[in-house]
Structure formats: structure tokens, C-alpha cells
What does this fold into?
Amino acid sequence: MNKLVAGALPVVLLAVLIASFLQFGPLGLLKTAFPPVEAVAFEKVVLEDGRIIAYVMNDGPDEVTISQVMVNDAYNKFQATKSTLKRLEKTIVYIDYPWAETLPLSIKLVSSSGLTFEKEIAVATPTPVPDFRYITSFAMIGLYVGVIPVFLGLLWLPFLRNLSRKWYDFFLSLTVGLLVFLLIDAFEGSLELSSEMPQALQGVGIITIGFFLPYLALLAISRRDSASAVKKTVAGHTLKLSYMIALGIGLHNMGEGLAIGSAFSIGEITLGSLLIAGFMLHNLTEGIAIVAPITKHKSENVLRHLLVLGLIAGGPTIIGAWIGGFAFSQFWSLLFLSIGVGAIFYVIVEVLKYMGNGPQTTLFTPTNVAGFLAGLLIMYATGLLVS
Amino acid sequence: MKPGKSVKNPALLLAALITLSLYAFFSALTEAHSGDHSMKQDHAGVVGEYTFDDFDPVSYLKNWNFNDLPEEKRKKFYKEEILADGTTLREYWIYAVDKKIEVAPGVFFDAWTYNGRVPGPTIRVTENDTVRVHFINHGSQAHTMHFHGYHEASMDGSMPEQFVEPGESFIYEFRAEPAGLHLYHCHSTPLKDHISRGLYGMFIIDPKEGRQQASELIMMMNAFDTNFDGDNEVYAANTKAFYYMDNPVKVKAGELVRIYTGNMVESDPVNSIHIHGNFFNEYRTGTLNTPNAFTDIIELGQGERSILELKFRYPGKYMFHAHQTEFSELGWAGLFEVEQ
It folds into this structure.
């Protein structure tokens, strides 16, 4: 009972203090001394035939009323599901406007205090609606960009099998290089996305949670495994490592799919054949990363495992492309991106641990360093094709 | 240990992730396509009604010397007295006050005003009258009243030593010359801020011999930079965007209409007025009796003004607006309703 009181005391005191501050504190002074701080963030804009639909959120500390809407610097009729928004409240603004395809578009919301909040669309194109044609197109994009290259990469397995331990380590280091590149790439992508989203959603917070969520979950799971009495075999461990890598890469590819799908649907990129080819080459290398640990693995089920590994690593690209294309949401996109970052980080640590158990006394042999650098360079070179 | 066994836990995680992503997908999807929100598209681009009763643009068209106020109240702001030489002494009481005004439906602007109005009250006198303006500054900034027209340098209201500090007052006095359409405005610094915040008004000097009987309308072109970014968000004739679209200016076919118009838009070099379906005589600054042009559109630089005279030929609704189409779509557009 005493424990309970001791635990609750600070909370109760805090509540009392906050209440008295709100009642008697200098808030009145603070409020009148400064004008209201209004902030409105656009979450997404959907373009339909003759209509613009803007999803917006009150991103500031004070209430905001959306009084008028300008499209391309002219007042325009609109309807909002709600025009006065409290902090973090959302509304959908429907604007009838005969927007022209391929031209830029500027949407400005005018608040009751005369402040304006603008969203610019570089190239107006109709937002895809999830009909059969688009679903299959996005699935095809995901298939080509994610699944096929990963499977092709997996076909290196027989080649890798016949290599000496030294070269095996080289390819493991190469894998680490590839993954480190992906890690930084994905992290940069998530920071970029977080800077575009409403401040109140705390993008960096989502990144932090997303990063540690899979990392700690995977860590806890693997600890439980090692604590259990089951005797670990090298084969089991390497296979598990491959699955971990596949999962990490799969999450990363989901982020890639999200980016492609959303950019495609809001007309920011046209997916030319060169870009698709670039992504394929880029993702081909991911196959090496996945199979590198299991080259010494002997199992009659190898083919079955390869199939599952390929699906885990490549399949999420399709899901990502769907989400990005039809239901783009900054919150979910960022969460998945950062989960991918955490998963890749976990995988890097695991591969390094695994390599550390090898015969050498140090990880930093010339072969390993060369492999690592080669991994970075391959990613950079293939990345040139898609940027 | 079977290979499949070690796979189980990542597979579980993957399943959880797929569930999460499906949830994200469908929750975002259902949000996107709910409800029908079609709307009626009419002439004016703004939505909603003016709610603030701060200023009536229809009444402003025909207001001068506080003729909109009841006699008792009017005396507090305007008095006239015939002097020995037959001219009139006209006395005004003008107060600078900070006031929130509504410039588009639901959009409010923290204005600096003369007597709580933007534009300020129209001052209308006859050539050679003595004008005496008691200016009292109840605002938060130093202000002045700077009149266009002949006056002594000490009455110019433009030099730093002539600034009237908050709480102080000054009396401007001069003989009204020349006949024409003039302005008054604040000349404190930063000048741009004091103009764009709303400190300006019409100053009409009628010629001694008078002008031909007409239906007279006062239209001040103005604009508001509501977010203070150096560009105007709202343009209008007489402050409220699109007001005359919903409340057309009523005139009669065949009757002489005289429009006193001036341009006090800040941040844009020129403004214009174009009247549909009709032509007018333009008298620049209203100082001469011969028209400068017979046209349907005139351009006015900042501070320029003109008197326009026309007779509407046919009944019906005729637009008038800035031919800077950007301005017209940001509020500077209205309708004449010509009655038989």
C-alpha cells in the first residue's frame, strides 16, 4: 500500500500543480502578449477529375479556422468537413477546380487571421484509384523492382558455395557493406520524410520508436532462443541469419515500394524503363546479401528456403507500392521506413557477430575491408541509375 | 534442430508486420473516399457570408461628411459654419484607432483606421472652404493625416516632427484647393505599413460652380496583406472582397453616374477599373472640365485617382473589376445592377 502511495504521489502533485498553474499562473499574460501561433499541415492531396481533395491537420498549438481557399492565387469555392480545428484535429477540404493535367498547382488555405498555408504540386496528375488495372500495375512494379531481382541474386548461391573460407568472408563483408549503405540510405529517407510531415506528429519520435521496435523484438527473440536448451547448430544459425537479412531487406524494400508508389501517384516521377532497370540492378545485390551466410548450409530444403527468403525480401515491395500508391500516409510510411532501418541495423550486428566467431582474430582483414568497401561501391554505382 | 524451427520467430514478426501494413492501407483508404461533397459554383470565389458589422461597403458608396450618422451623433464628428465671406468652415474630428476588420468572409485583418473604418470617412468640401481637421491619435503607433491639395508646409503631416504620437492630437487647417478628387492618408514611417494597414480616405473638393446632377459613387481600390509577407491576399473596391458581387451597386439606365475612384493598393505598381458593356469619360484627378479619355478601362498608379462619368445604356447586371485578372480573382470584382 505504501509503495502505491509513494508511486502515485509525484503524479498527484503534478496534477495539482498543473491545475493551479492553469488557474492562477501567468498564462493570461503569455497569451495576450503574443499573437496566436497558427500552423496547418497538408497530409496529402488527392486529385480527381475537376476536384481537389486536401487532407490537412492543425499542426500548431492554437485553434485554426480555415476561412477561404485559393487555388493558383484565386479564391475558389470549397467545402470542408470541419473548418475550425483544434490542435491535431484533421479536416478534408473539397475544392471544385478544373485543374489541368501536367501543369503545376498551388493550393492555399487562408485562416481567419489572414495567414496562408500553401501546398504546391509540381505536376498535376489524377491520383490513382485502386481499380484492378492500377492494383496489377503496382503489383507488377513491385514484382520487377523487388521480387525478381532478389530471386536472381539468390541464384548466386551455387557460385558462392564453391568458395574458400576467405572468399566466404569477403562476401559476408560485402553483405555488411551493402547493408550499411542501405541503412544510411533508409535513415536519410526517413529523416527527409519526417521533415515534411506535420511537426506535431514528431517524425523523429516515430523514427526512434520504429528503429527500436524491431531491433529489440528481434534481439529478445534471439536471446530467448539461445537461453532455451536447444543446442544451436551452425547450420541453424546461418539460416536464421539469412532470414533476418531477408526480413531487414524486405522492410527496406517496402520503404522503397512506398516511395515509388507515392511518387508515381502524385506525378513526381514517371517510371521509365531505365529507372526500373536501375532498381532491378540495385536490388539484385540484395540477393547476395541474403544467401551469403548460408553458402555452407547443407539442407535438402534449400530450394524451399530460397523461395521463402525471396518472398520475404522482395514481396514487401509490392505491398509498399500499393500503400504508397493508393493510401499514402506520412505516418505509416515513416513508421515502416524506420522499422526497416532498425531491422537492417540488427542484421548488420548479427552478421558481424557471426563473422567474429570465425577463425580469424580480427574482423578487419584486408579481404574483409575490401569486401565491405566493394559492397558500398556496388550500392553507390547501382544507385546512380535510380537517382 | 530443424531448419524450419529457427525460422518461426522471424516469420511471426513478418506476419505481424503484414497485418500492420494491411491495417495502415485500409485505414488510409477508407478515409479517402467518404461522402459526397459537391458544391454550387457561382461567380465569386469566396465561401460564406460576412459576419462582422464593422463597415458597410454599400453605404460607403454614398457617404461623405458623416452623412450616414443620425444628426446628434454626426455633430461629434462634423460641423459646418458659413463664414462672413460666404465660404464655409468645415470641421472634422478624426480619430486614429486600431481595429480588426473583416476583409473576406471569415478573414480578419488587424487594421489601423481613421474612425474605425477602412477606407477612412470621406471628407467632401467645396472649393475655397476652410477645412479644419481635429486629429486625435488613439492608436498604438504615431500617425498623421497628410492631405493632397494646396496647403502650407506646416500642415503637410509628413515630417518626423509632425508625427502625432499615441494619445496626442493635432489640428490641420487649410483652404480647400484645387477642385478635384484628392486623398488623405497617414504619412508616418514605415509609410508602406501605415498605408497597407488602412490609413487612407477620399478627399473631394467640389468646384465652386458645382458639377452636373448625378448619382455619385465612391470607390477606393484597396488591398490587404493579411499574412504580412509583402504580397496582398485580398483585393477590393471598398475593402471587402467580392462584396458587390452579392450586393450589386444599383444604378438607373440613362441616368448620369459619377464614380470617384482612387487606388491605394500597396505592393503592386498599378491597378485598374474596367466596366462591362459601357463606356465612360475619364477626368484625371477631376481637376479639369474636359475629359482625358472616353474608354471602358483606366489604369491608376499608387495614389492616383480619377472621376468617371457614364450613363448605363441597358438594364441588367454588368461586372466591374480590375483588369489585372489576378486582383479580380482575389476579390476586386463587383456588379452594377442597372434598373429601368
Summary: Residues 3-32 of chain B form the longest helix (30 residues). Helices of chain B lie at 3-32, 57-60, 71-74, 191-196, 243-246, 325-329.
